[in-house]
Structures are given as C-alpha cells and as structure tokens.
Model the fold of this input.
Amino acid sequence: INNMIKGVTEGFVYKMKIVFSHFPISVRVDGDQVLIENFTGEKSPRRAKIIGDTKVTVKGDDIIIEGIDINAVSQTAANIQQATKIKNKDPRVFLDGIYVYETSSGVA
Done:
C-alpha cells in the first residue's frame, strides 16, 4: 500500500543507458512497444513490451521510464534490458545493451 501511495503522489522513474561499442543502436517507441534497431548489426528490430500506463521517452543515449505503478515501470525496464541480452558471445567483450543506471521515486 505504501508503494501505491508513493506512486500516485510522486511517481516512479527508471533511467536506462544505451551502451554500444560495435554497432550504433537506435531506439524508438512505437505504440506499446520499444523498438531496438541495429543491435549488434541485426537487420530486424528487437521488441520490448511496455506494461500498463508506463510512459517511455528516449533522449539521446538515455531512456526514461515513468509511471505510478512500480511493478509496471520495473517490468518495462526489465523487458528492455532482456531484449538486448547477447547470446553465444562473451559478455566481457560484447558489452552492448541497454542497462538501468538509476531508479528513483518522484517524477524527474
């Protein structure tokens, strides 16, 4: 109940950073999905679902996820991070992806 009250009065904000070293990643919001294009040079975009009434904005290399439901905001951030998971390559070398770097309550 405390998170519900905090969500309505302040809101929840997750900030994510787009990190790439090999191929430039472009991210855009399309309806209830986040499209991640040119990830590791792939031709087809990867998709991450936006949960609930969460608002996603892309500013340069930052993705800002805002909402009043902490579960929807954090699940949307997890969906975006999981969509950029690299398989069958060394994660110490291929650091490309989208990662959460700040979580806070209160609209930025």
